[in-house]
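Submission checklist for the structure archive. All mandatory fields must be present; incomplete records are returned to the submitter.

[x] Identifier: Phosphoglycolate phosphatase
[x] Organism: Faecalibacterium hattorii
[x] Residue count: 218
[x] Sequence attached
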Amino acid sequence: MIKTILFDLDGTLLNTIDDLADAGNWVCAQHGWPTFSVEQFKHMVGNGIPKLVERFSPAEARTPEHLTATLAEFTARYDAHKEDKTAPYPGIPELVDALNAAGIQTAVFSNKADPLCGKIIEHYFGAGKFALVRGSRPNVPTKPDPTGVYALMADLGAKPETTLFVGDSDVDILTGHNAGLPAMGALWGFRGEAELTAAGADALAATPMDIFTYAKKH
């Protein structure tokens, strides 16, 4: 049986896209750059905030110095407004409670900057609902590199044969597989069934409780 579930954050536990898009478009507007739709932002996120900033920055603003400055602008704006429109997906709080009640360990592993992850998870779920919450850290490659997953699993005492990775994008499916874990796709997230299936998802969850059902059967 699955004893540990590692969750992606954005697009899996929390619908963060409106606040991410608003912060990105605010930065773009400050510089007179083109802005983007929420749908376009859904395809820019997933590889960490530095990559998101690079993707919404025009070509002439992608020097290392420029990207560093823009990243600082975006991070400050997003941090101040990250709870304006964000909310857990329907059924996610109940899923987390059910998993905890069943003795299944839960953790969060995100490409979002580590300090932002802890704050936003505690805001929406309270303290102690997840055994560990971990985001992108200096000198640790972002998903789909498995390095961070290995470190997280070591800290959790989790074994590959009883651990499941859950996320909404191909990055998450690849992350799970790169770490030798089964990977389940969340259909309510930013990317959708076609991308998850193409990436080789071992199972798909149409609702949050499908994750609980899968965990109990495997």
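[x] Structure attached
Curator remark: Strands lie at 4-7, 14-15, 87-88, 105-113, 132-136, 163-167, 183-186, 203-205. The radius of gyration is 17 Å.
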